Amino acid sequence: MEEKLTLYKLMILYMLKSVKFPLTTSQISEFIVEKGYTNFFKVQQSINELLNSHLIIDDKTYNKTSYYLSLEGKESVKYIGDDLNQMIRDDIDNYIANNKNRLLNEFSTKSYFEQLSDSSFLVHCIVEEDGINQVSLNLTVPKREMAESIANNWQSKNVDIYSYIMKQLL
User: Fold this and answer.
1) Alpha-carbon distances of 75 from 13, 14, 152, rounded to whole Å
2) 91 FRET partner, CA 20 to 30 A, in 16, 30, 110, 117?
3) Does domain 2-104 bear CATH number 1.10.10.10?
4) CA atoms within 13 A on the CB side of 15
């Protein structure tokens, strides 16, 4: 059992080493669970153990928790080598190569809302690139349901919205 958890932790470390941006729990588990390596609960347990051992750091912003390698994690991942089967590394490399744009878009696209004093809601919709806001759209709406819908839809519709705005303005 412990041996399998070690494998999942190595896989997570290798995934985080393979990208230049943090990954969310769902992005990590999407690969590991869909490939049939284990279930979501074992992935979560592995992430928690990596956090407790300070090999990864969590970043809780914009209602998302993302993970990236700590300094200790960066050092440890250098020594994975033969501890992680070449077939598994190839699986991870292929997954990252085939999904990099989507994973990056999910990382770069943020939305959240806050309640204002007058019972309306302010929705923040952001697209970042290299830590710089490329798009920042703030909308005030009267109902929580509207704010939730806008925040949830921003992830999938931001490219269309950005294209429309640019077309109209240029």
Assistant:
1) 11, 12, 37
2) 110
3) yes
4) 31
pTM of the model: 0.70
Question: Residue 7 in contact with residue 14, Cβ under 8 Å?
Answer: no
Q: Backbone dihedral region of 29: left (phi > 0), alpha (psi from -120 to 50 degrees) or beta?
A: alpha
The residue among 131, 146, 125 whose CA lies nearest residue 62 is 125
Confidence of residue 101 (pLDDT cuts 50, 70, 90): confident
Q: Is 131 left (phi over 0), alpha (psi -120 to 50) or beta?
A: left
Confidence of residue 126 (pLDDT cuts 50, 70, 90): confident
Q: Where in the chain is the domain with CATH 1.10.10.10?
A: 2-104
Give the model's pLDDT for residue 1: 56
Average pLDDT of the chain is 87
C-alpha 47/C-alpha 58 separation (Å) is 10
3-class DSSP assignment, residue 170: coil
Tokens 């490939």, located at residue? 35
Q: Which amino acid is at 102?
A: R
> What residue spans in the chain does CATH classification 3.30.160 cover?
108-169
- What confidence category does residue 146 fall into, taking pLDDT thresholds of 50, 70 and 90? very high
